[in-house]
């Protein structure tokens, strides 16, 4: 049985990789893509989602722009990380076509009529707005898997804050405090382990084809950013892990706990994972803490390059490359 899903995202380089993985995953029936401002503003995110759908021959999937500014904070985007076009300055041509708005209403309409889940890859502005607009319909959603936050891992926007939750901490607070929907936090503790290293990028390049070319092209800028920012060789691809975990929970381990978030001051965006049960509150989320990164990368590459699985296995199993 395919699982009906809406992917809420802010494409964004790793969002684009996550969309490619999701489109190549037969377990998913992607009902639509909703766009939230984050890495780039909503309009640019919509254009980028359409570029991926065109590349993958899936322009049948509709893209809806949702909320374009956070609930309270001023919007802060991340072109320094994802490039001015949001796809690593790859400057793929715009696809055009009708621009659809109403991302939040799309989520609520589907929640009312079908059993859906949400894979959230950006700030939670659309999710919180849907919750506040129609709580009854929202709570019919089966589960939300959200890339965001951090437990023990340091932040990527400050010492303590991860970008998605830092952009709109008030939206996260609404979801943590009011939602009754099963919630999994795919935070930096696990996504930081997923690095597309130069070896993997070269493997993708050698596999070749339009999709490989797209991935190599959009990640170049991201690799340079990672080197400049943190002397990482390659690039951390956060969002695809949320898709993989939604499909198969065995990629990660975690625990149920009470979650809260700091919404102002120096630690704004910090997720509070109450592992010590200090607040004595009921668990409201599952926090992921461990990931089988090799298993993930095999899954990721194998799903996207189905015809090249033998080559992928041969290269990854060859200890010379340390992959
Ligand atoms: O902190 C990483 C997250 O913020 C990823 O989803 C990335 O795409 C950005 O949205
Ligand atoms: Ca994202």
Automatic annotation (TrEMBL):
Pfam family, one: IU_nuc_hydro
Protein name (Swiss-Prot/TrEMBL): Purine nucleosidase
Source superkingdom: Bacteria
Cellular component, GO, one term: cytosol
InterPro entries, per database record: Inosine/uridine_hydrolase_dom, IUNH, Ribo_hydro-like
Organism field: Clostridium gasigenes
Inosine/uridine-preferring nucleoside hydrolase domain boundaries: 5-297
Single annotated GO MF: purine nucleosidase activity
Protein keywords: Glycosidase, Hydrolase
Gene Ontology terms describing biological process: purine nucleoside catabolic process
């Amino acid at each position: 049985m395919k699982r009906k899903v809406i992917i809420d995202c802010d494409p964004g380089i790793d969002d684009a990789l996550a969309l490619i993985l999701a489109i190549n995953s037969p377990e998913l029936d992607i009902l639509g893509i909703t766009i939230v401002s984050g890495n780039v503003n909503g309009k640019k995110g919509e254009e980028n989602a359409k570029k991926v759908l065109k590349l993958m021959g899936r322009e049948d999937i509709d893209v809806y722009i949702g909320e374009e500014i956070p609930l309270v904070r001023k919007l802060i985007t991340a072109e320094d990380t994802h490039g001015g076009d949001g796809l690593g300055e790859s400057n793929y041509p715009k696809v055009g076509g009708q621009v659809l708005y109403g991302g939040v209403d799309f989520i609520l309409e589907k929640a009312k009529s079908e059993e859906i889940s949400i894979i959230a890859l950006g700030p939670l502005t659309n999710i919180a707005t849907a919750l506040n607009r129609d709580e009854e319909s929202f709570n019919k959603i089966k589960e939300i898997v959200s890339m965001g936050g951090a437990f023990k891992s340091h932040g990527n926007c400050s010492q303590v804050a991860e970008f998605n939750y830092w952009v709109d901490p008030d939206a996260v607070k609404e979801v943590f405090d009011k939602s009754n929907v099963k919630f999994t936090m795919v935070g930096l503790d696990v996504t930081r382990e997923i690095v597309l290293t130069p070896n993997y990028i070269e493997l993708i390049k050698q596999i070749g084809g339009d999709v490989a070319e797209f991935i190599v092209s959009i990640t170049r800028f991201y690799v340079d950013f990672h080197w400049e920012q943190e002397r990482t060789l390659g690039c951390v691809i956060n969002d695809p892990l949320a898709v993989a975990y939604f499909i198969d929970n065995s990629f990660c381990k975690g625990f149920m706990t009470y979650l809260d978030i700091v919404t102002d001051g120096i630690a704004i965006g910090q997720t509070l994972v109450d592992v010590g049960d200090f607040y004595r509150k009921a668990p409201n989320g599952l926090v992921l803490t461990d990931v089988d990164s090799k298993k993930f990368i095999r899954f990721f590459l194998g799903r996207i390059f189905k015809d090249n699985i033998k080559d992928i296995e041969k290269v990854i199993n060859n200890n010379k490359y340390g992959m």
